[in-house]
């Protein structure tokens, strides 16, 4: 049986803008909304609440089995599913099976022989 390791990293940015620093020094701290990505269409599909806050993010995935390499087996698929469930329990991220071929952006789990 092959061991599958799933790594998802979260980055916290602890950086204030120049105007936030000045406001903090003046005793009038006002947090400004940051924009890491300008176009929402480039984000993973998500659901939002009434305030526009993300409630769930859906990330399509596939598991490559067989083919010209040994591929992943059912135990590996189960491990991936269990890892996805743990991530879903603690975050807003939901991994969903890619069912439509028009979903151009997705994650593919496969065995690399290198």
TrEMBL record:
Which organism does this record belong to? Desmophyllum pertusum
Q: Which Gene3D superfamilies match?
A: Collagenase (Catalytic Domain)
- What is the protein's name according to its record? Peptidase M12A domain-containing protein
Question: Where does the Peptidase M12A domain lie?
Answer: 35-114
Does the keyword field hold Signal? Answer: yes
InterPro entries, per database record:
MetalloPept_cat_dom_sf (IPR024079), Peptidase_M12A (IPR001506)
Q: Which GO terms describe its molecular function?
A: metalloendopeptidase activity
The Gene Ontology biological process annotation of the record reads: proteolysis
Protein origin, superkingdom:
Eukaryota
Would the keyword Acetylation turn up in this protein's UniProt record? no
The protein's matches in PROSITE patterns, at most eight in alphabetical order, are given as: ASTACIN
Signal sequence bounds: 1-19
Sorted keywords for this record are: Signal
């Amino acid at each position: 049986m092959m061991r599958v390791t799933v790594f998802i990293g979260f980055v916290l940015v602890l950086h204030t803008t120049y105007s936030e620093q000045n406001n903090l020094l003046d005793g009038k701290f006002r947090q400004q909304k940051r924009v890491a990505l300008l176009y929402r269409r480039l984000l993973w599909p998500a659901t939002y609440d009434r305030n526009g806050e993300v409630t769930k993010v859906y990330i399509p995935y596939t598991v490559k089995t067989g083919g010209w390499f040994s591929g992943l087996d059912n135990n590996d698929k189960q491990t991936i599913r269990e890892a996805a469930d743990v991530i879903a329990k603690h975050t807003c991220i939901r991994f969903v099976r890619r069912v439509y071929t028009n979903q151009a952006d997705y994650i593919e789990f496969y065995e690399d022989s290198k």
